[in-house]
Each structure stands twice: as structure tokens, then as C-alpha cells.
Task: structure prediction
Amino acid sequence: MRRLLMIALAATAAVLAVAAPAQAATPSRWKPAVGLTWQMQFSGKLDTTVKAQVYDIDGADATKAQVAALHQAGRKVVCYVDAGSYENWRADAGKYPASVRGKALDGWPGEQWLDVRNWTVLRPILAARFADCKAKGFDAVDPDNMDGYSNDSGFPLTAADQLTFNRRVADLAHGLGLTVGLKNDLDQVKALQPAFDFAVNESCREYGECGQLKPFIAAGKPVFHVEYSAAQCPTPASLRFSNIRKNLNLDAFRAAC
Result:
């Protein structure tokens, strides 16, 4: 009798194991550390010889072979993607209806702020862009223009609208196993730091805003910081930022900051 009972229990367990839904594996992702050296290049022929541990390059322009070559050289590679604004030269520009395109970005011809409240329209576009980054082998994404609510966007965006959008962008990247950075949006750093893996900042020294990025460093997450003027370099060593100086057109030039 005992033997029959054990056989029956084993059979039941086997049936339950088959019937139980499989748990989706959470893709593992790169977790960058404070103090990594970096390079950012979005224009001109990609220079892969810069001695930097992290490369931030344009996701649409980069090739899978370039990403692989950087990996072979021991680099981690970040995929630049415009998330909060429209660029009229991109291959997928036609997917943005006029209803989500707002005012032009000052000083950036061909770019318009987006209505980040309309996730129904924006999600599939960004999902496709992030999937392309993943397919090319990128380790992370650098979604740009994540602060439309604090600009003259043409839409009545609120801080809450921006928080919701930025967290959705982070979740979208994480769902693909991609690390994700917060670009600027300094006024919401404290609220958004838990959702992001690093920060990318432009000109915080110039505008006296670098202290607002301390929550990332305190959480063991790097701040990749760039200034465009030698007069603004460097930030205080106590901040522990990864500093560089670049030309405004973000070509291959890179200098210590």
C-alpha cells in the first residue's frame, strides 16, 4: 500500500509540474559601477581607439559589427536613442502623427518635443528602437530629452506626466535586459534614481547643478558627465563623476575634464 501511495504521489507531482505555467526568466543586465571612463560620439566616423571603458554612440547609425568590435576591445556600449523628442531625419519619423509633435527644440533644427502622455503612440516606436539596440548587441540605452515638462514643449506636461513617462521608458529597456540611463531631468533625480542604472548629464558644472546628481553616486551608480567648455572642467573630485569634455557636435574629439 505504501509503495502504491508513493507512486501515486510521484505521478501527481509530475502532472502538476507539467501543468504549472513557466516563469519568464528576467534578462540579466549590465550594472555599471561608479568611476568608469567613457566616450560619447554621435557624429563623424566612429573612432574605436579611444581608451574608454564605456562608449555612448548613436543606436540607429551604429552597426552590429561596430558594437561587436567595441566588445572585443573590452568596452561596454550604450545605445543613444531620442525618446522625448521627434527627429525628422530618422527612418521611423513617419510613425509619429502630428498630434504628438509639439514645439521645436531651440537650437536643434528638425526636432520637436513629444507629448509624452500619449504612451499608446510612443510605446511601440520606442519598443522597436530598443529592440534594435538589443539586436545589435548594445548593453544599455541612453534615452534623450527626458525633461520635456520643464521646457516649452507645446503641451501642458506636468512633473507627474514626466515621471510616468520616464519610468515607462526605464521599464521598457529593463524588460529587454538593457541597462538604462537618465538623461538630465535633474529636478526629478531623487524620484527617478531607483528606476535607472546610471545618469548621463550635460553641462551641470556650467549651470551649477551637479549636486543634484549625488543620489546616483550614493546608490553606487555612475554619472557620465560632459562639458563643452574647458573653463567648466572639472567637477569636484568628491562628486566622483566620470567627466569628459566634448565638442558640441559630439564628434570623436574627447578631452579630460
User: Anything to note?
Assistant: The CA atoms of residues 7 and 122 lie 55 Å apart. Helices lie at 2-19, 64-72, 119-136, 159-175, 189-192, 214-218.
